[in-house]
Amino acid sequence: MAALTALLHQNPGRQFTLGELADRFGASRSSLSEDVAVIRAAVEEHGLGQIVTQPGAAGGVRFIPTLGLEAVRETIASLCRELSDPRRLVAGGYIYMTDLVFSPTWSSRLGQVFALLFSSAAPKAKGTEADYVVTVETKGIPLALMTARCLGLPLVVARRDLRVTEGSSVTMNYVSGSTGRIQTMSLPRRSLPSGARVLVVDDFMRAGSTARGLRDLLGEFGARVLAVGILTASAVPVEKLVDDYLALTVLQGIDERRRLVSVIPGPAVVGLGA
Amino acid sequence: MAALTALLHQNPGRQFTLGELADRFGASRSSLSEDVAVIRAAVEEHGLGQIVTQPGAAGGVRFIPTLGLEAVRETIASLCRELSDPRRLVAGGYIYMTDLVFSPTWSSRLGQVFALLFSSAAPKAKGTEADYVVTVETKGIPLALMTARCLGLPLVVARRDLRVTEGSSVTMNYVSGSTGRIQTMSLPRRSLPSGARVLVVDDFMRAGSTARGLRDLLGEFGARVLAVGILTASAVPVEKLVDDYLALTVLQGIDERRRLVSVIPGPAVVGLGA
Fold this sequence. Notes:
Distance between the termini of chain A: 35 Å
Largest interface: A-B, 59 and 59 residues
Largest sheet of chain A: 6 strands, mixed
Shape of chain A: globular
Strand content of chain A: 25-35%
Number of helices of chain A: 10
Helix content of chain A: 25-40%
Low-confidence stretches of chain A: none
Order of helices and strands of chain A: HHHEEHEEHHHEHEEEEHEEEH
Number of strands of chain A: 12
Mean pLDDT of chain A: 89
Oligomer: homodimer
CATH architecture of the largest domain in chain A: 3-Layer(aba) Sandwich
Strand order of the largest sheet of chain A: 6-5-9-10-11-12
CATH class of the largest domain in chain A: Alpha Beta
């Protein structure tokens, strides 16, 4: 049973058929079914994830390492405390978030939170309908990777410049809402098939011009954006260039002189389970 | 036992004391010790990782999800087959590796391979002595993140340009061996404490100028590079700018006209267990 739990955990989102597991562990299907039931009860009781079983010939069992509601709220509350720490203030009125977004521990937990939000955002089960997770380099990559890992999906990363190693690419220029400068992003032709359904994950949103640019770029591939997940959205400007996004936290304000930072849980998290 | 396995897997590299586990699961320490022994036997038998227990008051139990030797060889062999696929050829004699390096499945398995190589490279237990995993953006990030996750270490990412959001940074110019052009990389001052011991992970090495530049940049922080892990090293030039690196695969050659690509397992993998 320990080996089965370990195997499911090391391959999150991947479906194993009972036959495959029976071969691997030299156990009968019926005893495996019982083991799966015990594992499901155990991981769900301790808020460690969900075991999803699908009946029938094409069915099987897979593990989605989402967190329980309470664990999500605790994670986001402690993230807000971390981000509100005045020692994170950087000259110019910015918050240093680099260590958090690149941390394996944080990115892995926050990936689980995104996976839960995407799965529970209306229309139902968006997360499980998606084909890809997409982000723009650089700081969104760990979060997007861990989200994709949770959901068992591949990750596609839009680049800031054209790379000779990526073959023919589609490139788009857009105007950054925060700097007013022209920015570029590009996606290799072969990175996405036509008509893919994607989930977008990024670390920060101010005006939403990057998210909007990415949506337009994805439009060139005939891709449909099912949902946009953002680690921290700035409270201003209130009006963003994209309508619909799920923010884990909201940066309410920075008072550089008095060294005050206020980061609070985002509406997507506050509304969970309500 | 399933919940305990799940908890250890979701927190790779993190040490749990028996007291902490006893509180969490409402079980006695002695029954937990027995459970840990069963889990260790199970995950080791199936090549799913190692359970490391440390005795004494400061001791505890942690899970390192390295692969078994056979699984490492299989993973690298199938990676070589993937990379040698002529459909990956991109105009100019490059190989398209982007989907692989950003894949959660591949990066997670290859992170396990790097963790094993770093732990077994002489001098002994380098991986467990390190304080940080370091990479340069962009394509090395998923591999480095997953390696760091396996080893329970934080990740630091050198950027190609200076970011206003990262505070004061140390920047270094170096000449790229492949393009002959001046490249820049920079690390925020606060990303690394002085005197850290680091493991470097990157996706590709041709002449080694990036790895060399990174080592020099890390030198500015008084950091010591314990080992360098590379996903694919080009066979030419034979002489690299860094002496010591562990390559998972070697790109032997590309014949663009005849559409032939040859990628073979690297010496670090071939020599494993020998």
